[in-house]
Amino acid sequence: MAITAQAPATKTPAKRVPMTSLRKTALVAGVCYLITFISVPTLALYGPVKDHRDWILSSGSHTGVLVGGFLEVIMALASIGTAVTLYPVVKRQNEGVALGFVAARVLEAVMIFTGVVSLLSLLTLRQDLGGANAASLVTIAASHVAVYNWTFLLSQTLMPGINALLLGSLMYRSRLVPRVIPLMGLIGGPLLIIAVFATLFGQHSSLTGLAGLPVIPVAAWEFSLGVWLVVKGFRPSPITAETTAASTPLAYSGVAV
């Protein structure tokens, strides 16, 4: 009787599950949202320029202004990235509101660029007009700082409140993320808008103290949204089902003869 030796069975390596297009979208959008927080250090980096009226006359380092401007440019581009990335998904909930979110993000970025230019132009004045009248330079510098302060109020304070209402309503209704996340934006957004208009009409000199409290839930909404999209992605919902069905090619079954 012949005995056939069998080769030992080898384990087939497990195939890696490919990342779906929806998961990639959620990941990119979440990363963009987290990148928008890269501008937080500018509050300290711009301190010498904003707090000292005669900064333009000094000869100290201006590295902080350059770094701050670079960080804000990255933030502005990431802000546009959040809207452009999410638009194909959230438009299935409400295309008009989704388009408004994209427009609001682009407008926010444009105003951020305006503020950055107003501060970076001070570097040119500082280097090229050192021999000019000191009083005139201080006045010009103060006007540039004022432009930055107002663009900051409108771009990085008012627009996040509007964006929280637009995207928050889409996320709340679509259930793409846990409802507690957009709820923070839906609560903080209107309060932040009210605080900005109170500042515009002179009720508060700046968004500090009680007037700055609405910034906290809006910042928490954006940060938690970014973390959830990176870690978990979109939750199953009718929107994700529609998106998956639309991106899946039709399968044709053959007829056996």
Question: Top keywords for this entry?
Answer:
disordered N terminus; disordered C terminus; elongated; 257 residues; mainly alpha
Description of the structure:
Helix 1 runs antiparallel to helix 8, helix 6 crosses helix 8 and helix 7 runs antiparallel to helix 8. The longest helix has 41 residues. It is elongated, with a radius of gyration of 25 Å. By secondary structure, the protein is an all-alpha fold. The relative contact order is 0.13.
Secondary structure layout plus pairing:
Blueprint lengths: L20 H15 L6 H4 L1 H5 L11 H28 L4 H34 L5 H41 L5 H21 L14 H17 L6 H10 L10
Helix pairs in contact: 1-4, 1-8, 4-5, 5-6, 6-7, 6-8, 7-8
- What is the arithmetic mean of pLDDT? 85
Shape: elongated
How large is the count of helical segments?
9
| Backbone CA Rg | 25 Å
Q: Percent range for helical residues?
A: 55-70%
Number of beta-strand segments: 0
**Oligomer kind:** single chain
Low-pLDDT regions: 1-5, 250-257
User: What does the largest sheet look like?
Assistant: none
Structural class: mainly alpha
What is the element string, with H for helices and E for strands? HHHHHHHHH
Beta-strand percent range: under 5%
Distance N to C terminus: 45 Å
